[in-house]
Batch of 2 targets.
Target 1
Amino acid sequence: MARFVVQYASPSGEMGNEIIESKTERAALAQIESSGRTPISVRPADGTSHDKQKTHRSSKRRQRVRGGKAMRRAMMDFTHQLAAVAESGIPIVAGLQAVGDQTGHAPLRAAISRITG
């Protein structure tokens, strides 16, 4: 089984992290949800990230297209995490800071940092 670090919000609005052993990310999220907590983010416990792109030698056009997909993926992850923050009752600034710390996309992290101060 794989190990995942799940960041969550408790029913009282406090944030925490827990390492969960499960077959998939979805199973780890389901485990947190079944205990009454709201998952904010999930990542492999070994420090790897599914957001990391393989680097290829290719034309500038191809690199732009790949960067566009990475940004769309980062924005999709961001909106899901922000929705979980909003549902959990965590103060929005604290939630934004937590989501910003979790993202592997540097431009998005910088934008969130500018917003939260």
Target 2
Amino acid sequence: MQENSYSNWCENLAEISLLSFLAIMLACLGVNAHGEAPAEDYAFVNVNVVPMDREIVLPRQTVLVSGGKIASITASSDTALAPEVE
């Protein structure tokens, strides 16, 4: 029974990580009506990050997107955001 619970937990974590990744990619790839990257800065706070070069999940990260590109990825506990960041 425990193995099934662990398997479900892993599947849920994978789904949440995938959704987080997709949300970040949509923000990074977004363009305005003039074909330019959005000027706003966005922060995805307390998300799980799955690096593409390692088989690991980085939990509780803050991903800052600026000018349509990922500007930084830091631990949420170590991150202070400016008031203008959404």
